Amino acid sequence: MAESAADAELLAAAAVALNRNGEVLRDVGAVFADAGHELYLVGGSVRDVLLGRPLTDLDFTTDARPEQMQKILRGWADALWDTGIDFGTLGVGKGDYRLEITTFRADTYDQVSRNPEVRFGDNLHDDLVRRDFTANAMAIRITGDGPGEFHDPLGGLAALRARMLDTPSAPQVSFGDDPLRMLRAARFVSQLQFGVAPRVLEALLEMAQQLDRITVERVAAELDKLLLGADPVAGIDLMVQTGLGEVVLPEVGAMRMAIDEHHQHKDVYWHSLTVLKQAIDLEDDGPDLVLRWAALLHDIGKPATRKHESDGGVSFHHHEVVGAKMTRKRMRALKYSKQMVDDVSQLVYLHLRFHGYGDGRWTDSAVRRYVTDAGPLLPQLHKLVRADCTTRNKRRAARLQANYDDLERRIAELAEKEDLARVRPDLDGNEIMRILSIPAGPEVGQAWRFLKELRLDRGPMDHDEAVGELLKWWNSRERPGV
């Protein structure tokens, strides 16, 4: 088919971008050509270079079998990684580049198990047909002269122009082969800001429950990529509307049932997506996965705590406490790290604390506790609280933001006088044991916690004052047998 002017322009721009990596492409192309094998740049690498996106990965496919690749590359590569060798994939280090080269695949699936029966293919076309979406099913021949012939047997370039996700084969077949591709569709909606073809949408609605076949580790990896994309709101909404969310993140879709207490939004679900979008707008150092997860989940406790009040209003008392527990449970089920679970659930727990600030009526003690409870998450808590203001009442929104400006100012003022990042008792454990003449044990911990609470209430004390308060507390305690 004749190449359109728009296609020619895309391909010319891609060629310019690829030439920035020309040396490594020519070198690896020559190595395979000299050994009598074909080599193609493929998949996301081709898609991204055509879209003008940064080329972060160099993914290739070849007719060479894994053991042949090892022999071909051993003298050329700086390093080889064979962790994916059973699936025909070899990782290659060359200078600053990391390449991934995979033998043509022609896998078969039983539509039940989670993993394919790995079968190597003999030609490029069969390899491209088995890929997830047509936009990822294009290839560029790589030889000793660098990038060469462009291969697009499945209409991937047209899909890019239309910004549309479609499958090379019938979507029911493609998703049945690997149900994770359904979640990947939502991820690409977020990352690439594409839509989905009508037949793909139909298959998602029909087959969502098959995501149960996928391990939670693979699911979590896709969810993270989705949330780190350019438009995670669109990706999340596709998940929820198709039923994918009910399988992997049911708490989010459940928020559609709860009207928020201000009656300013369609429901808590859309409020949460708005908070996610606004949190992203506040990021100042690249995508923040912890902040994005916390923004998405901050109100998941509302459906469980919704109460219709006698005056006709709706309340969600302690939804932050319930939401933090729900967040912890869901993220543990998805096998996130302990640190990730702790950080996201703590932000969910703390996100409502500021609303007790009023018009600056917090004591210094309350400000210290706010900072101490947030710990290193304080910058993210600042952003989450600001993002959580979605009211359409401009006067109320301005007042909330002004109040938070005031809180941040007070935090800064206290931080100039004392180390708020490390609020500790004015006496350490060794001093406590010496002053009270007690050995190490539970009583030392109790004394330490008393002094920590006193430090939060009063701020820094001099040594004599701290000793006096410790002795006063110790002598007033009720002790067994006394």
UniProtKB/TrEMBL annotation:
Pfam families: HD, PolyA_pol, PolyA_pol_RNAbd. Residues 390-424 form a coiled coil. SMART domains: HDc. Its cofactor is Mg(2+). GO terms for molecular function: CCA tRNA nucleotidyltransferase activity. Keywords: Coiled coil, Magnesium, Metal-binding, Nucleotide-binding, Nucleotidyltransferase, Transferase, tRNA processing. The keyword rRNA-binding does not apply. The keyword tRNA processing applies. Residues 264-430 form the HD/PDEase domain. Signal peptide: none annotated. InterPro entries: Bact_CCA-adding_enz_type3_sf, HD/PDEase_dom, HD_domain, HDIG_dom, NT_sf, PolA_pol_head_dom, PolyA_RNA-bd, tRNA_adenylyltransferase. Its EC number is 2.7.7.72. SUPFAM superfamilies: Nucleotidyltransferase, Poly A polymerase C-terminal region-like. It comes from the Bacteria. This is CCA tRNA nucleotidyltransferase. It comes from Mycobacterium deserti.
